Every structure is written in structure tokens, then in C-alpha cells.
Amino acid sequence: MAGELPSTYDGPVHIAIIGGTGLGSLPSPPFKPVATLPPPSTPWGFPSSPISILTYAPPTGSSSNKPIAIAFLARHGLHHQLAPHEIPNQANIAALRKLGVRCVVAFSAVGSLKEEVKPRDFVVVDQVIDWTRGVRPWTFFEGGMVGHVGFADPFDTTLSRVIAGALGKPDVLEGENALLHPKGTVVCIEGPQFSSRAESIFYRNVLNASVINMSAVPESKLAREAEMAYSMVCMSTDYDSWHETNETVSVEMVMGHMTANSINARRSVEAIIEELGKPENTAVVQAEQWKGMTKGAGGITKVEGRSPEALKKLKWLFPGYFEEGVWIGSG
């Protein structure tokens, strides 16, 4: 069916779902596929997968009374062929912004570092600790253009509140007493290997992290540079290796819980999209809070010091932001 869909879409698309392990697609119904966009070329290469455009019709009685268009991108590729350090994060975020997306809800499988966060629980994280090793390109500002954006609160607080409200409704998270945790800190490691027991204990006891994954960085940092409202829903699959009664973390263990998480993830997306479609959430969908932020943050390099290559890339991503002769230090 996907091959029969149009390869272009002319309507506005402001919301995107980035699917991780356990969420490789969205179900139809309730989501209706309307287009499959081939991976578009960006100055940072091609994104992980084609971009699926789907529409969602809210149920009768909802204050969101018209179909909502959303984009879906598979972080690890259509066949989960990309390791965490191989994900083209710059291209993923750039392609979504170019499409018109300003609101991103990312899903990620995680290990739990807290006793109270059980396997199959969901966590809407509000903080991140970057424990990667600098292997992954993590900014759009380099090679002759310097930009510094604020990252004190890595995940959009309003979007996260909307998500937590949606997931907290009855019948969204089901089975095995699955719980929602509306806050938490995710530590992002390089991978692709799981943590040693000593590392896991360190992340838990010294860093005081709640969950651990391999994908929150640099995705969240690039989304902030791209002026997007971005939040991450973490789906717990195991207790990581710190837990005294836990067997060594394995793919088999993770995938066993992931099967159950996948069902809840799909149900969660529906609840989230319904909430985001309501008129009162228009500002967060449009990322009004972040509009224009990068223009100032990225304008600190003097005009004569800007490399043509870096400037060309940024003009592609931010049309009108970095015109010749404009420097924030000039006034």
C-alpha cells in the first residue's frame, strides 16, 4: 500500500513522531497514510528513513474537530539497520524542519535506573545527561558559524505537560500495572553495547539518573537549535545491570518487554495527537516559544568570518536568518 501513496504532500505538517526501538510505524487505523516522502536530501545528508505523512481524525466530541496531519520518521531506519552512533540526527531534524514541523514527540526504549520505574512503565523525561563520547555530530553551527542556544531545560515543558496529561488518561497505558512517570532524568550513553554493572551503578548512584538510553543526544540538542518544541517519551524495558536481582541485560529481555510497550506506544501516540490538535495547544504545536531564538544565537560570528559553506547550510535551514551584513554585535 505504501508504494501506491503519493511521494509529495502539499498540506501543512507541524507535528512529527520520531519512532525508536519498538515504534517503527503507526497503525492504520486510527492513522491514515496519505503520502510517503522519499528521504529528502539535506546539507547534512539524508534522514534515517522515508517520511510518512498520516492524518488522524479526532473522535466525535473532541474540541479538535478536523483531521490532523503528522509526519513519522523511523530513527533507526525502516529495518532498524542504524546503530545509535550511525543515526543521521542532523539530517533527521533538518528534514523535519524543512517540511514545516515545529513540534516533535520522540519515543525511545530505555533501561530503568530506579526501583520505582518498572519495566513497561513510561517516563516523560524533563532532563538529560550527555554521556556520549563526541562521536556524533551534535550541532548545526560549525565550520565557520558559531551558535550557542540555551539548553537548561532540554525538553519543552509545555509539550511535556500535554504529553503527560494525555498518557495519564484511563486506558492509555495498559497491562502489568504499567505506570506513567511525568518527570525523570535520562542519561544518554554512546552504545551500542549495554552498560557494565559498575557503569550502571554509577549512573544510578552518582548521576542520579532515572533511565538510560542511546538516542536522547544529540537529537534533543539539534531540535532546540532548530527551534522545535521537543519532548521524549521513554519506554522502560529492563532494570539495566545495576539491579541485584536482575539478570544480565540482553536483547531477548529487552524485546520481551518491548512487545508490550509497542502496544502502549501506539495507543499513546493517538492520545497525544488528539491533545495536540486542540485549539488551546496551538502555540506549542507552532513552537511559538522558540521562534527566532536561533537567529540571535547563531549571529555571533562576524560577517567577515563566516565561511560560505557553513552559511549556505544554515540559510537552507533558516531562510532569512543569516543574511549578509547582519551581525548581532554590530548594534
Secondary structure layout plus pairing:
Layout: E1 15-19, E2 31-37, E3 51-56, E4 68-74, H1 89-99, E5 103-112, E6 122-124, E7 127-131, H2 157-167, E8 180-181, E9 185-189, H3 197-205, E10 211-213, H4 216-225, E11 229-238, H5 251-276, H6 282-285, H7 293-297, H8 308-317
Parallel strand pairs: 1-4, 1-5, 5-11, 6-8, 7-9, 9-10
Antiparallel strand pairs: 2-3, 3-4, 5-10, 6-11
Helix pairs in contact: 2-5
Q: Oligomerization state of this entry?
A: single chain
Helix content: 25-40%
Task: Look at the structure and give the mean pLDDT.
Answer: 91
Helical stretch tally: 8
How would a textbook summarize the main sheet?
A: 11 strands, mixed
Can you offer a commentary on this structure?
- This protein has 331 residues and is an alpha/beta fold.
- 26% of the residues lie in helices and 19% in strands.
- It is built from 8 helices and 11 strands.
- Strands 1, 2, 3, 4, 5, 6, 7, 8, 9, 10 and 11 form an 11-stranded mixed sheet that branches.
- Helix 2 packs across helix 5.
- The longest helix is centred in the C-terminal third of the chain and has 26 residues.
- The radius of gyration is 20 Å and the shape is globular.
- The N and C termini lie far apart (56 Å).
